[in-house]
Request: fold
Amino acid sequence: MGVGIEALFTSALGLQAPWRVADVKLDTAARRIDFHLQCDAKRMSCPHCNAPDQGIHDRLPGQWRHLDFFQFEAWLHAPVPRVTCSSCGKTTQTPVPWARPGSGFTALFEALALSLCQQLPVRQAAGLLRCSDKQLWRRIAHYVDAARKLDDMSAVAVVGIDETSLRKGQSLHFGGA
Reply:
């Protein structure tokens, strides 16, 4: 008994129940492969308050750029469940296990993109990844902002400014905030 292509790609993408690959579309002319995912759950925990066994209200379409498969640009497409919670009263979209909310890239693609941006100019990394440099700059800004929120600057007493900055019109300010 053979393993179906959907089961093979479900495993290759690291998906676990209730998620699975329902269909695979290969477009050799466009050098693109589209994975259509499905969530088989009928009930889920509330993403907002974690109340168990809540009903699924509806499913909203989403798509994410993934790492290339066989040198083909790969995309994941999925109707993402929204849960209506009887406990907190909210209707909330469930997070997907392969991407952070609002990213449009899978976590693996985002990690590769950020690694490339550490070593290459952003425009060059975007060219290699076949995406726009603006998309990469948005991801960089997201993670820089997150890192800054974790950084405690309360003990900083002095900040050095070089003469180039002074020539550009920046001024020194001493004293309290």
Q: What stands out?
A: Helices lie at 5-12, 107-119, 122-129, 133-150, 163-167. The first strand starts at residue 19 and ends at 27. The chain has five helices and six strands.
